[in-house]
Amino acid sequence: MKYLTLSLLLALPTPNALATNLLPSDVDQQQIPVLNNDIRTVDNNVQSLHSYTQSQSGNTQSIVGAPATPTAYPGLYGSSYKPVGLPYAITYNSVSGATYYELYESTTDSNYSQVQSGSQLSASFTHYDYGYRYYKYKACNSAGCSSLSPWRRVYVYTAPSNPNNLSVSPLDVSAGTSYNVSWTPSGGAVDGTVYSVYQSLNGGSESLVATRTRQHWSETSYSFVTSQSTAGNYNYRVQACSPSAGCSGSVSAIQTVTPAANTAPTAISQTITVNKCKTTQFPWGQFAVDAEGGPLKIEILEKDARLFAFVIEDTLWTMPFFGKCLFGNHKFTFRAVDSEGLKSSIATVTLNLQ
After folding, report:
1. Strands 173-174, 246-258: parallel, antiparallel or unpaired by DSSP?
2. What is the total count of domains within the chain?
């Protein structure tokens, strides 16, 4: 009987083969997601994933997050004061990754309401009620929107109210005395508001005598200083007008100016050099002054006997030449008398004839 012998070869794995068999296959490796670009931006304590690329099963897929929160507040053409009934534009900066924007408005910097959404970077507004308007915006794309930007404030104004606290100080002054006309700002006044002051005497026609323009919100009062030489009742009317939004009503105050106390005129002593052979004229104002500006009479009290005669008119003294040429110093004394009869002290004039 013959026996069949079978030889079995048992192949044991080598160390290298064992290590190779423990690694995942290429297919297995492709199942493992790999984050190639993981960017996170912290803004206002809100963390958002902006973008990363995921490789899976041999395909590349890009995932984009919401844009970053804008750091700039909305823009505005011109002043932050805008008149009622006229349009103004709010603008905002573009943000990386944003495809559209949402604009929000509030009257109190709280409880904002969305007023526009779209790819445009500006919006136009026209308001007919005065007051503050606050604006913020968000940057958005298909993944969502950012948080709100910082705010921009606009003040929509109308015609101001009447000026406040108009007063005249001191009251009841004499002619020639300075006094102050003052007032405080109108409610609703903005930069560029013009205060006009009109003056009239004893109910007659009025004229513009002063203007004051608001330059800054911190201004607390306005005034001007004046004086009047004519006695009577002076009415001051003040009105405020805002740029492009109309004017307030008027407020008025009255100042009484009494006649100045009459004072005696003043005579002026002096030495004058004149041509000894020429008729000479002098304005009387060169020798005497009346405090009230009224007419004066001149009284010659004494003169050198060698002097020629004087011809005294309303405004001129004339020393005529009669054919003699005197020389040297010749004196005369005089005084001035005003229309009320008050007399000046005596003054001396020396004529130096050369």
Report:
1. parallel
2. 4
Token match 């000894």: residue? 276
Task: Tell me if 140 is assigned to some domain.
Answer: yes
Residue 11 forms part of a structural domain: no
Report if residue 70 sits inside a domain. no
Amino acid at 211: T
Query: What is the band of 310 on the pLDDT scale with cuts at 50, 70, 90?
Result: low
Look up the domain containing 274 and give its range. 266-353
Q: Which of 250, 263, 125 is nearest to 199 (CA)?
A: 250
H/E run at residue 216: none
Tally of CA atoms within 13 A in the half-sphere of 144 that contains its CB: 13
Please state the φ and ψ torsions of residue 55, each to the nearest 5 degrees: -100, 120
The enclosing domain of 209 has a CATH number of 2.60.40.10
**Interstrand relation of 232-242 and 194-201 (parallel, antiparallel or unpaired):** antiparallel
- Within a domain: 14: no
- One-letter amino acid for residue 283 of the chain: P
> Distance between CA atoms of 189 and 192, rounded to whole angstroms?
8
C-alpha to C-alpha distances, 16 to 10, 25, 54, 159, 205, nearest whole angstrom: 18, 16, 33, 93, 117
pTM: 0.56
Say what the pLDDT of residue 64 is.
72
